[in-house]
Sequence to fold (197 residues):
Amino acid sequence: MDDENTKMLKFLTEGLLGFKNVDTNLKELYVKHFLIAMKEYNLKSKVQICHFLAQVYAETSGLQRLKEIDKNNEGYAYLLGKGVEIEGVMIKNETLDDCKNYCGKGPIQLTHKGNYFFYGKMINLDLLKNPDLAREPEYMFKIALTYWNYKGCNKEEGSDDDSVRRITLIIQGGSSQIEKRITAFRNMFNAYDKCFN
Fold:
């Protein structure tokens, strides 16, 4: 493992709560593909990186859960009929199978059939046929950062609690787990200098 990978592994282990519980081989794979995606999708500054990883932490418990939990064991029925408008066309989860296939997956929990279609198309992946690619290390950070950039999250340069709230509203659609996200951002921000300077 080269110096860049070693520093990133240390940073994620210290700053991204829960990451230390991830299998060692997976950690190295995640670091490798995160670094590739960071460069490809222009995630450069300390603030940008910490904002992204704070959201990842809140959505996945530090990359421990890359698929949404069906809390009520209803087959994700709450997603039925929900969707997103893509290029002027509403694409919805029409069946319970759609709800299961297009539930939250990956670092930011990509959700809804329309999002799988749109963001897959943006990076030349057929996520409608292969929705589980959204949680595969080779693709998951690319998908998440495509979403991140398209939604304008990478433009946020604030490092205060309000900046975390603004990004959470974009990523999550509300303020779910806002304190957890703020704490995660602060942890990442503090760990960054220890690991990279």
Notes: The longest helix spans residues 178-196.
